[in-house]
Design goal:
It contains one helix and 56 strands. The protein has 621 residues and is mostly beta strands.
Length: 621
């Protein structure tokens, strides 16, 4: 019975297929507004796009809107698009991703095309990524020529991308010629890779609008170009106007490298921004080649704003020689311009040189700093710590104030030392000289940037902090360690710190405007110079706590009449205390006063030597 019913069903299906006007067809393929060498991409061919003028691998992922070129060569032109452009690749897709693998070449072939010519045309946003290279050659045309034309936002994340403009003849019925290596209609973002646009050399004519652009960003309603990383290059060819990189809006360069060059023309500008040219990072080189016939010939144009960069220019050369400091108000005088990132500045100076994000990882390269036996000098901005090992740091610049290490910020600054280290000032100062200084001793600029100093010496490390000579008329002072603006000083670890003031009217081993404490098993030797009128082992405005290790505070001696010498000195009328914990050794010595007030002794601490803490001589605990 089952077989009979099955036979009847099959017979019915067969009969239905024979009815007039009835056919069985496959489901139609989806078509996409994407053309490769005249072949439209569909759901059927997307995984392997082939056709005349296509070699290598070309495929399109419909889920991610990604067109992948893998060692592809595309030479045939497609004119089946609403804009009338002859293009090897045409995209009407919004937010297309172009992935490049291996070596890829896209172009319109040889000969002169009768319409606008672009090797790659995208009406929507285009993002280029991948590890390969892409060369887009527009070919020659009687109208507008562009290697790559994106009418929206063009973003390059990686890879090597080159756009070559061809020789053009007419635009919109006129005799004007326009050649673009890369044309962007809204915004350009360079986040990595190499992006290069080269405009063609145009035939000499009488037209005032024969223009060659390496990279052109229209962006009437956008914000122009942004270079965050990677390299952007633009070279304009000959013509009435030549521009390496041109934008109708702003150019913002925050990293990477920018190279812009224009060629001999009546108007020749390397890097042109109609509005603002903002440079806060990276390296920028711009030059304008010119002849005597040129009337506009300058490397950069725009309202120039420089941040954390240095800039030079040359008024006579375009090869980077005969340079001088660049003056933006006279920009038309400079056919050569170069700026370099100097780094984000930190509130720290080492050997008289400011620490920046550029030099922080290896400060041994700056003048006055040297290391040995695997040593280093590094600054970590995250935890505000300068680490040194087997380092010699010397500030040899004479001036009003100088320090081997100086911190002028807020919060807690840490100096961590390993191995054997010396920090000093070798040039004479007129106001203050410090081995290490927090703040600027002798300079009062309100509000004062209060900060704390932590000196940490690792096991068996030695750290010598030596103030130099200060000789002026306004209370010249020299410090081994000083915190000038009401901040604390903490010395800790298991090594040895030798803090010595140099020759000055006032000489301090340690000068602390706030509380001072010494913890751990380290040894601190604080000495004032012998030749000073007022010499202090330590001067502390706040509380003094000796909680571990050894402390020696010795004021120097001087034969000068009226000279004073103190071991540990402070404000005798304040309620601040000196506390000495059990298990520590303390020596305070001064010809005038050993200690400015009686200390609080923890259980087990006894006085040795002279118990006359407020008289001349030494007090030992």
């Amino acid at each position: 019975m089952k077989r009979r019913w099955l036979s009847l069903a099959l017979a019915l299906v067969f009969c239905l297929t024979l009815l007039p006007g009835m056919t069985l067809t496959a489901e139609a393929a989806d078509s996409y507004n994407l053309w490769i060498a005249g072949t439209q991409v569909t759901s059927e061919n997307a995984n392997n796009i082939t056709g005349t003028g296509i070699t290598g691998s070309v495929r399109y992922d419909t889920q991610t809107n990604t067109l992948t070129l893998n060692n592809a060569t595309i030479t045939a032109a497609n004119t089946n698009n609403s804009n009338g452009y002859s293009t090897a690749i045409y995209s009407g897709i919004d937010s297309l991703i172009l992935e490049i693998i291996g070596t890829n070449t896209v172009g319109n072939g040889t000969g002169v095309l009768s319409s606008n010519a672009c090797a790659i045309y995208s009406s929507g946003s285009l993002t280029i990524t991948g590890s390969g290279s892409l060369t887009a050659n527009a070919g020659n045309t009687s109208q507008v020529s562009a290697g790559i034309r994106c009418n929206n936002v063009l973003t390059v994340e990686s890879g090597t991308v080159r756009g070559l403009g061809g020789i053009s003849g007419k635009e919109n019925g006129s005799d004007d010629k326009h050649s673009y290596g890369i044309y962007v209609g809204y915004q350009l973002f360079v986040n990595g890779g190499l992006v290069e646009g080269i405009g063609a050399d145009l035939p000499v004519s009488d037209s005032p609008r024969d223009r060659s652009y390496g990279v052109y960003i229209a962006g009437s309603f956008g914000s122009g170009a942004f270079v965050n990383d990677g390299t952007l290059k633009g070279t304009g060819g000959t013509g009435t106007s030549s521009h390496g990189i041109y934008t109708e809006r702003d150019i913002s360069i925050q990293g990477g490298a920018v190279e812009a060059a224009s060629t001999d023309a009546i108007t020749s500008v390397g890097l042109y921004a109609q509005l603002n040219l903002n440079i806060s990072g990276g390296t920028v080189t711009a030059k304008a080649l010119f002849s005597e016939a040129s009337y506009s010939k300058y490397a950069v144009n725009g309202t120039l704003a420089l941040s954390n960069v240095s800039a030079i220019g040359s008024k006579t050369k375009t090869d980077g020689t005969e340079t001088e400091s660049y003056v933006s108000t006279n920009c038309t005088q400079y056919p050569y311009f170069k700026s370099e990132f100097t780094g984000i500045p930190y509130d720290l100076w080492v050997a008289g040189t400011q620490v920046t994000s550029k030099n922080a990882s290896d400060l041994s390269v700056i003048d006055g700093v040297s290391v040995s036996d695997g040593g280093y000098v590094k600054y970590y901005s995250g935890n505000n710590t300068l680490t040194i090992k087997n380092a010699t740091i010397s500030n040899s610049t004479a001036g009003e104030t100088g320090a081997g290490i100086q911190y002028t910020g807020t919060g807690t600054f840490t100096l961590e030392a390993a191995g054997t280290n010396t920090v000093s000032v070798t040039a004479a100062q007129t106001l203050s000289s410090s081995g290490i200084a927090v703040g600027t001793p002798g300079i009062w600029s309100f509000p004062l940037p209060q900060a704390n100093l932590r000196v940490h010496v690792l096991d068996d490390a030695t750290l010598d902090l030596n103030g130099g000579t200060a000789a002026g008329t306004a209370y010249p002072s020299s410090y081994g360690i000083v915190n000038a603006y009401d901040g604390e000083i903490v010395v800790t670890g298991a090594g040895t710190v030798n803090a010595a003031g140099g020759a000055a009217t006032y000489s301090y081993g340690v000068n602390c405007s706030g509380d001072f404490s010494k913890t751990g098993d380290c040894t601190l030797n604080a000495t004032g110079a012998d030749s000073s009128l007022y010499s202090y082992g330590m001067y502390v405005s706040g509380n003094v706590t000796i909680a571990g290790g050894k402390l020696s505070a010795v004021g120097g001696t001087s034969a000068e009449s009226g000279a004073e010498s103190y071991g540990i000195m402070g404000d005798t009328s304040s309620s601040d205390t000196i506390t000495i914990a059990s298990g520590v050794e303390v020596l305070a010595k001064g010809n005038t006063v050993a200690l400015h007030k009686a200390p609080t002794l923890n259980s087990g601490v006894t006085a040795g030597g002279s118990p006359n803490y407020d008289g001349s001589g030494a007090v030992v605990y």
